[in-house]
Write a structure and sequence with these properties.
single chain; mainly alpha; 76% helix; elongated
Length: 122
């Protein structure tokens, strides 16, 4: 017998809407891209510091950017799994968790790094 409802299985149970699962996966990929960009920015700071002779500021900045990028990748993966499970179970989505802390750290880095380089570069 052909199933007439697109979101139910042969046994009659409701299946999750695949659009939500695909949107969740796209969100994961966007956060992974952001994580890679932050790690690449840390590598760029290291390369820039070799030419501009800013070892301390660059070291801290690069380490912070790399750590934030790594934490963001881990947090995105954990949230993706939790969100996928919640979507399949029909439960509410999990809270942001570590992502808000990571974004706050990124905002602080964006504001403080140029000032730090300007002060130490003179």
């Amino acid at each position: 017998m052909v199933n007439s409802h697109p979101h139910s299985s042969e046994s009659g149970e409701d299946l999750p809407d695949y659009r939500f699962l695909l949107a969740n996966e796209r969100t994961l990929l966007a956060w992974i891209r952001t994580s890679l960009a932050m790690s690449a920015a840390g590598a760029g700071v290291v390369i820039l510091s070799a030419t501009e002779h800013l070892p301390y500021a660059a070291g801290w900045s690069a380490a912070t950017l790399g750590a934030v990028g790594g934490l963001l990748a881990v947090d995105a993966t954990i949230r993706w799994r939790r969100s996928s499970s919640a979507i399949c179970a029909g439960a509410p989505l999990p809270p942001l968790g570590l992502r808000s802390v990571v974004l706050a750290a990124a905002a602080v880095m964006a504001c403080c790094c140029p000032a730090l380089f300007a002060l130490l570069g003179e």
